[in-house]
User: What shape does this take?
Amino acid sequence: MTEKYNAAEVEPRWQKVWAERDIYRAHDDSDKPKFFALEMFPYPSGRIHMGHVRNYAMGDVVARYKKAQGFEVLHPMGWDSFGMPAENAAIATGGHPKDWTYNNIDEMRAPMQRLGFALDWSREFATSDVAYYKEQQRIFLKFWEKGLVYRKTAKVNWDPVDNTVLANEQVIDGKGWRSGATVEQRDMDQWFYKITHYAEDLLKGLDGLDRWPEKVRTMQANWIGKSEGLQMRFEWDGGKFEAKFVDTEKTLENRVIPNLAEDKQYYNLAKLWVGGEYPTGVEVFTTRPDTLYGASFLALSPDHPISKRLANDGYDHADHPVKQMHDKSASSIEVETFLKECAKIGTSEEAIAQAPKLGFDTGFRVKHPFIEGATLPVWIANFVLMGYGTGAVFGCPAHDQRDLDFARKYGLPVTAVVLPDGEDAATYEVGTEAYTGEGKLFNSGFLDGMNKNKGIKAATYKITEMGLGESVTNYRLRDWGVSRQRYWGCPIPVIKCGTCGSVPVPEDQLPVELPYDISFETPGNPLDHHPTWKSEGVTCPTCGKAAERETDTLDTFGDSSWYFAAFGGSLSADGMDWDAASKWLPVDQYVGGVEHAVLHLLYARFFTRGLIDCGLLDLSHSNLAPNPIGNEPFAGLFTQGMVTHATYALADEKIDKDKWVLPEDVDENDDGTFVHLPTGRPVLKGDIIKMSKSKKNVVDPDEIIKGYGADVARWFVLSDSPPERDVEWTESGVIGAWRFSKKVWSVVSDTTATDGPMAVASEASGDALELRKLAHRALDKLTTGIEVFRFNTSVAQIYELTNALSKYKGQDAARMEALGILIRAIAPFMPHLAEECWSKVGGEDLVYHAPWPVVDPAMLVDDTITLPLQVNGKRRSELTIPKDMPKDEIEKLALADEAVLRSIGDATVRKVIVVPGRIVNIVAK
RNA sequence: GCGGGCGUGGUGGAAUUGGUAGACACGCAAGACUUAAAAUCUUGUUCCAGUAAUGGAGUGCGGGUUCGAUUCCCGCCGCCCGCACCA
Assistant: This one.
């Protein structure tokens, strides 16, 4: 008699056993090889969603599987708990961000534990824990010491209503996402992490990450954006730059930051203004010096120091009379107006990219380096980016589309210097399309006749020889601005002294703790207008004078850049063990969403390098073996797809946000249309998209656990779709998973054999042997499926094995062997069911502690094989023969096959191809 | 614009050193059990023709290489993702 399986009773019972026996604790001093399984930790929004379930279920499969393979597994969980939503909730509801956050964590921990993940909860922490951010402040100071932290003025998105800096992602169509105010570009003093210091290493490191998705590696490589080229100077024509200024007393505000001096990209700019000296020319970066002869103008970024200097004061274009000494000249006002015009265009990258080209002729001219006597006008152009290269370019309209658009608009000359193959130098002209391909150089003096590459080399050599420039490598990657004018984040451990400048808080005074008594009444950063925190009793650690605290907090992406190490180091109120962290790292398998492909995963790689250089981490060895992948935090990465669900919208509702309805309230009519049951209004089926509260297409994991059990929820999210693709949540799919769990249980409870689940039926024959073969074949495939992250194929094998077992009548060792394989195979997916089955069939100890079943290779080969027979590539018949039959005999049998003969008909056999163990193909014409 | 990926039955998908296309599941249909339903079990299910045996077509489209192509190559079409004036 089949007993009923009651997940609601079974699951909590086993969870209690697991917790009491503390089986998921990872031991630092284990003598087994280590395996660090990690999923991207959650933000405590208050609810877990199906995306979490899928993410952690995948990691759990790996963790449990590796445990069964004999590894010491670390599989921890924590909370990425600093961030804006807590502050927003506090502003909206009047609560406190801290209370909101920690309540949410408690709300989320419980359902997560109900899912039965093999997590070492003893290592749990939240990034908003004082102990965590204290350690982070230490790291900040160590990075500072190492030169990886600096302060500079940078352009930021400023929300004038909320009085805070916004990240780029928080600016939507040029407006603040919360206030709706038009965002301004502002120069502000900001703290930066010098991620560019590792640009080359971060790029090179990608090569070794062969267990990362290619896509993520490509995205990071593009983000780092290495390009090699020539940085060169165009010298002023007709005297010095300064001659154009009425008032040379005034110098531009000193933008030079001392510890930036070694940073090449900024050095050349900074150099221009040191001590008020004026630049002798304009520095540009180019990857196409071969086209220098086609240059027709120079373009400066609106943010270029020269542009700003011109707008700033005293600049007098030769054609304008000076109005009054020390007042703004007419020319400066013109420039200023133009720069404002450029700033208006918007902040989104796309808006900038599609904006029309704007230019302003400064009236300055520079000398062409190769053509004696030739000069080029210097323009300010909105399409030149300050953040890349030197913030200035030479324009070669014939061979660059942007330059061409610009030249056509402002009537600048277009001179072709690269001749495409098959074109005639006498007649070749560039119209509206710039030519960027290969070709022979012409109109180019000493470069004439060379191809592109040769031309680049020759021009670079010449410029270098002339002392005007040198080869440089440029990166698109920019330093990471980490200052946030927010409360709920890690305080930057710095004291600002009027005399000594920015001074680190001494280590023995850490942590700089967040005050609890804050107010969100006034807009802006609560830390800044806290009555006492900023300055009461604060003195400069260096000179002892009264001073002020830095009130900015660190970008929360910093929190997630080293948390994996904190797990390994068992971070607690007493600090953490960095040596232990070093032994656990790198993370062997990391699982998370692809949305972090660049930001989080790049920042974490940067932090790891910084932590190594500061002596905190040493990744040269894991606990037992040398580490082959170098200074990387994540040896294996898997990016999983989302959980999607159908959406339904009222057909007659005009207001977008009001139109979505709950899928369970929708019913399908006989004619295939849909109706909203509570109101009777017509409904249209929308796209199948990621579960989202606002679209009302969410399914609460806790409801599924209550209705079907945790195992079913876990099984479903892993079963149908490949892990990297999205999986659509459907009611029928869940019911299917639920039925399967019952089927497994019925197979187990129908078993009366007593050999135990570790049985090996070595004497099996007949049906028993067939079952053994099927079981081992399934085991082989499903194991591979887990190894290569194709859980859906593992699931299919488990289905096959279960189906075979449910049909198998014998109560013998072969049944037990297959059952033992099945139970251990489903354990990573449905651990509660597996545990219950294991105990039911007399398994020793827990299935969690049972070793992974071993494939018997003898079971994978058959004595007889079935070969398909093809005639002219089409399958006509098949042949069952002993596996070692010689080729010529196979050929003979194939040619005697009735169906084959029929297909050949009157044609003559030209060739017979026999691929042993694979196929026979007969070519007949 | 640049970069990456994908395209297979009614549906999710399987199949890789090139060798039986459609495993497994969902759905659907028929049957068994049942007063009935649910559950469960059995059988069938790529399309077209045929009662069937069988024949033909078939992995987005068009070509190519090959005895043989979902797989490799070339050219299109469509969808998705990332970056986006990077000089």
